[in-house]
Every structure is written in structure tokens, then in C-alpha cells.
Inverse folding.
């Protein structure tokens, strides 16, 4: 039981320090539920809950995405390759062209596609503010 309380405190500290999204919160709940079942001796039920929960919490791609700083307008223009005075249609065209190359279905990565999507969203938001 003490181990369960320590694990819950560690997850709470981790959430407070870097924030957990819905999938990570579900994974943490699964891991804690599995840990509770492990302490009660139900290891046949606990392991399928505990191990995937820990894996989802510790995935490197989830950790690196959370630590990346936010993109500013200048960097977003560099990512999409558009000029500072580009209109919404030019931004959308550059986004379509790039995301077709970097999408995971085309051999790219989810991280690159996410950066291209974020750049589009930032630049379109800047246009709406004007």
C-alpha cells in the first residue's frame, strides 16, 4: 500500500511539473490500478494493466513533444517557406505541399507533420488578428 501511495505521489508531482494530457492521465490511472492489483497478489490481471500504462507514460516521442518550445511567427514562416506578407491561401497551399511530403503515411514522421500543422495554425491565427 505504501508503494501505491508513493507511485500516486510521483504521478501527481510529474503532472504538476510538466502536465499530462488525457492519454497520459489514462495511462497513469492504468499503471496505478495495475500496481494496486499487484500489491494484492492479482498479478495475472495486474501485468496487462501495469506494463502498458508505464510504457505509455514513458514513451520518448511523448516526452520530447512536451519539452519543445512554442513556435513563433518567424519560425512558422521558415517552416512553411512563405514570405512575411503571405495571405491565407498561400499559407494553406504551402501547408498542403509540405504535409504531403512529411506525413507519416508518406514515410515522414508525426513530429514533422505536427510542426507543419502548428506553423500553419500560428500563421493563420496571426492573419485573423490583423
Amino acid at each position: 500500500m505504501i508503494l501505491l501511495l508513493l507511485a500516486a505521489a510521483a504521478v501527481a508531482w510529474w503532472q504538476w511539473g510538466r502536465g499530462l494530457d488525457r492519454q497520459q492521465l489514462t495511462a497513469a490511472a492504468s499503471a496505478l490500478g495495475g500496481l494496486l492489483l499487484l500489491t494484492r497478489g492479482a498479478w495475472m490481471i495486474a501485468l496487462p494493466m501495469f506494463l502498458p500504462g508505464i510504457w505509455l507514460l514513458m514513451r520518448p516521442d511523448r516526452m520530447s513533444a512536451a519539452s519543445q518550445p512554442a513556435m513563433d511567427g518567424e519560425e512558422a514562416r521558415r517552416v512553411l517557406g512563405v514570405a512575411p506578407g503571405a495571405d491565407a491561401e498561400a499559407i494553406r497551399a504551402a501547408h498542403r505541399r509540405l504535409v504531403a511530403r512529411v506525413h507519416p503515411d508518406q514515410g515522414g514522421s508525426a513530429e514533422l507533420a505536427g510542426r507543419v500543422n502548428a506553423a500553419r495554425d500560428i500563421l493563420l491565427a496571426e492573419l485573423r488578428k490583423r
About this structure: The mean pLDDT is 76. Residues 110-129 form the longest helix (20 residues). Helices lie at 2-18, 22-39, 43-58, 60-67, 73-80, 88-102, 110-129.
